[in-house]
Amino acid sequence: MSQQVPSFNHVILLCRSGFEGECSAEIIDRAATIGVTGYCKTDKRSGVVVFTASKPATVMKLIETLSFATMIFARQWFAAIDEVKDLPVKDRVSSLAQAAGRFPRCKELWLETPDTNEGNSLSKLCKGLQKPLQLKLKSFGALRASGRYRLHMLFTAGDRAWVGMSLPGNDAPWLGGIPRLRFPKAAPSRSTLKLEEAWHWFLPADGWGEELKAGSWAVDLGAAPGGWTWQLVQRGLKVMAVDNGPMNNELMLTRQVEHHEADGFLFEPPRAVAWMVCDIADKPARVIHLMSTWLVNRWCRKSVFNLKLPMAKRYLEVCKLLDRLQENCDANGVKITWCAKQLYHDREEITVMVRLVD
Ligand SMILES: C[S@@+](CC[C@H](N)C(=O)[O-])C[C@H]1O[C@@H](n2cnc3c(N)ncnc32)[C@H](O)[C@@H]1O
């Protein structure tokens, strides 16, 4: 077998089904910032975008240099060779192992599928292939604990897969970019998972205790019935829950929650707080204005909020909105950092985290 490293011509990106256009616009735009050009191909509602670089040599530079954490619409990515097609149904393992045989050494193998009905129907196949593929790859040293990369095989059908690799630390640390979270039975609403997922994306895995300090105060705008407040209460925070709607009774009995029946757009905290979270579904421009007010006045140090996506030119509009937040803070001498992601639990929206840096 030749030792030549194969040609990684593509970057495969996974996104929410229906957002392939946004994901494509984003990767083309962001790749250009580091001098990498290319084009995207995608099928409608496939949840997969294939970015093909004009110069294949730039693909590894792209997935190693561009910060994955700054990508909004991509849930997962990896550099890939050309699609492996016509996999023999009776022996997919040999063909796939051969495809990955000349890759730089990888430390683990992830078998993934797009987040679509068709994709989900392939997950059983993935489960069945995981062990035999691992064994085969280990048998000729392609998979070793000391490997630098993560090996990905993304099945788009039973007989075809994208095979490639990502750099751990600059990819999503979950299969398919979806943290598997269990709905906590005691939580008052399913929305609770949105805030928990946001923390998984935006907070360092070993820093939750420091970031969400027990005893500190948070404001939850648009809090009812209390799914987000519940998350904050679980971490020991005290919460001003702002909503004209009713809050969950058990949550109120914890005595960690003050219910303020008020308009979230007019509410001013009696003192600065550690966190402000906001799950009010309103015009994104209005939400950005609200966030700017909180940050410029330093009413909170950190915030997680939702931005409903506009109907058209969604990537462009999101960039404009986030630029406006940055400009509002810059104009007032307030330093912030932010990141944004379309979470698994987000539908027609993205979730943003902002923090004051001084
Ligand atoms: C999606 S729900 C929030 C769910 C909540 N995060 C949870 O986890 O249970 C949106 C909430 O925003 C509230 N809301 C809408 N406009 C508001 C406003 N101007 N001020 C305060 N709350 C508002 C609604 O009453 C509703 O309870």
In short:
This protein is of the alpha/beta class. It contains 11 helices and 14 strands.
Structure description:
With 358 residues, the protein is α/β, with parallel strands linked by helices. The chain folds into 2 domains: 10-177, Alpha-Beta Plaits (2-Layer Sandwich), CATH 3.30.70.2810; 192-356, Vaccinia Virus protein VP39 (Rossmann fold). Helix content is 31%, strand content 24%. It contains 11 helices and 14 strands. It has helices at 20-33, 58-65, 92-100, 117-120, 123-139, 192-202, 208-211, 227-234, 249-253, 284-296, 314-331, and strands spanning 10-14, 38-42, 48-53, 76-80, 106-112, 149-157, 160-166, 217-221, 238-242, 257-260, 273-278, 300-308, 336-341, 349-356. The strands form 2 sheets. The protein has a 7-stranded mixed beta sheet with strand order 2-3-1-4-7-6-5. The protein has a 7-stranded mixed beta sheet with strand order 10-9-8-11-12-14-13, with helices on both faces. Helix 9 (249-253) links the parallel strand 9 (238-242) and strand 10 (257-260). Helix 3 (92-100) packs across helix 5 (123-139), helix 6 (192-202) packs across helix 8 and helix 10 (284-296) runs parallel beside helix 11 (314-331). The longest helix is centred in the last third of the chain and has 18 residues, at 314-331. The site of S-adenosylmethionine has 22 residues, from helix 8.
